[in-house]
């Protein structure tokens, strides 16, 4: 509803407050729209300690912690979270509830029933696209889509997947690619110096003159496919290439298993899980090559950031990666869940400097033209205005 300042109110809801792609998306929207709308954010897991909460506080955005909202399915927590979400919506009286993440997509839609508000959902990669995902999520998305006014897909791949799986009618689906704000990249010598500073003094891993640095950024979830990158790393090392693979990201439950696997393969000197780094994108120019080994993606922010940094990229052909990467033009696409093929493509790319240079230039130009924060915000704002005008009519 419009408040005393005559602005529409938008309530953004997301399951967790740790910083990932969906959280970055919300932060970018609210930071750009806070002068035009009354914006508030609700989230559960990690609460006030999550990076999203900290960043929202810094720019003066009001947020609400939904105590029982957790990523893991739990009948008790989900039931309590449902009523907490409904109470929050009644309290804030938004014109629009903008949902993000699969769990909140379902709970938020159901909690909004009969409250006479418009509901938008941004699908940051459909959960049913994950390997071995059961049909529950597909059925739940189909059911909850009935209560949504618009579903934003961050890639055309996801929009087509929704149509194929009959999630909802075509008129409700729209593709709006993620956009990235300008990044103050550190130049290569400074970026490498910063990177070296972050290495644990006790680690076997060292960066030496002449090493080829391969980077990958993402929280340590199964969907990021880092085990395939580690396996590929072993194969690359066996080919006598002096590579160092640096994986940057917060533990998402896979850290211990991945570290154990690095030790079992005996590649501690060549591969490291560096943990979370603040403003990790700023040091991208430290790398010679960027790799995305994901088994599921929506539209990868980190690939766009690597494109803007002017890096050659090897990425798995999942989700919207094919909309970012034109094979052999703006990067290399490779089959997912296949360490051998990933290693082969990385080796071939590193041995072709001319191709690397061409792809890096093309990728930077494409990212600067098509994947800007301004374009993403403007298209999203148009959706807000469209559905609220429809409501008035």
From TrEMBL:
Protein name: Glycosyltransferase subfamily 4-like N-terminal domain-containing protein
Entry-linked PANTHER family: GLYCOSYLTRANSFERASE (PTHR12526)
Pfam families linked to this entry: Glyco_transf_4, Glycos_transf_1
Domain Glycosyl transferase family: 206-365
Single GO term (MF): glycosyltransferase activity
Domain called Glycosyltransferase subfamily 4-like N-terminal: residue spans: 19-180
Tree of life domain: Bacteria
């Amino acid at each position: 509803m419009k408040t005393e300042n005559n602005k529409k109110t938008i309530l953004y809801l997301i399951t967790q407050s740790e910083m990932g792609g969906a959280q970055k998306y919300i932060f970018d929207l609210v930071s750009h729209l806070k002068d035009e709308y009354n914006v508030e954010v609700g989230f559960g897991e990690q609460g006030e300690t999550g990076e999203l909460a900290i960043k929202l506080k810094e720019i003066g955005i009001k947020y609400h912690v939904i105590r029982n909202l957790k990523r893991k399915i739990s009948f008790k927590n989900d039931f309590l979270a449902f009523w907490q979400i409904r109470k929050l919506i009644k309290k804030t009286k938004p014109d629009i509830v903008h949902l993000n993440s699969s769990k909140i997509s379902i709970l938020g839609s159901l909690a909004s029933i009969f409250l006479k508000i418009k509901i938008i959902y941004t699908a940051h990669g459909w959960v049913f696209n994950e390997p071995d995902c059961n049909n529950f999520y597909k059925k739940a998305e189909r059911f909850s889509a009935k209560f949504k006014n618009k579903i934003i897909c961050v890639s055309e791949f996801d929009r087509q997947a929704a149509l194929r799986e009959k999630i909802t009618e075509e008129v409700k689906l729209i593709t709006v690619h993620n956009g990235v704000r300008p990044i103050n990249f550190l130049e290569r010598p400074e970026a490498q110096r910063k990177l070296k500073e972050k290495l644990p003094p006790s680690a076997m891993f060292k960066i030496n003159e002449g090493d080829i640095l391969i980077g990958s950024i993402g929280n340590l979830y199964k969907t990021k496919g880092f085990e395939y990158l580690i396996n590929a790393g072993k194969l690359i090392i066996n080919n006598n290439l002096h590579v160092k693979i640096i994986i940057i990201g917060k533990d998402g439950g896979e850290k211990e298993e991945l570290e154990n696997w690095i030790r079992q393969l005996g590649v501690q000197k060549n591969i490291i899980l560096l943990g979370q780094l603040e403003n990790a994108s700023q040091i991208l120019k430290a790398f010679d090559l960027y790799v995305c080994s994901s088994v599921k993606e929506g539209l990868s922010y980190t690939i766009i950031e690597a494109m803007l940094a002017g890096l050659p990229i090897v990425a798995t052909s999942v989700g919207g990666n094919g909309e970012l990467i034109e094979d052999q033009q703006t990067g290399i696409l490779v089959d997912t869940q296949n360490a051998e093929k990933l290693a082969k493509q990385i080796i071939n790319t590193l041995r072709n400097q001319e191709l690397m240079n061409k792809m890096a230039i093309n990728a930077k130009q494409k990212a600067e033209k098509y994947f800007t924060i301004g374009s993403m915000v403007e298209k999203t704002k148009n959706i807000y205005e469209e559905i609220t005008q429809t409501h008035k009519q």
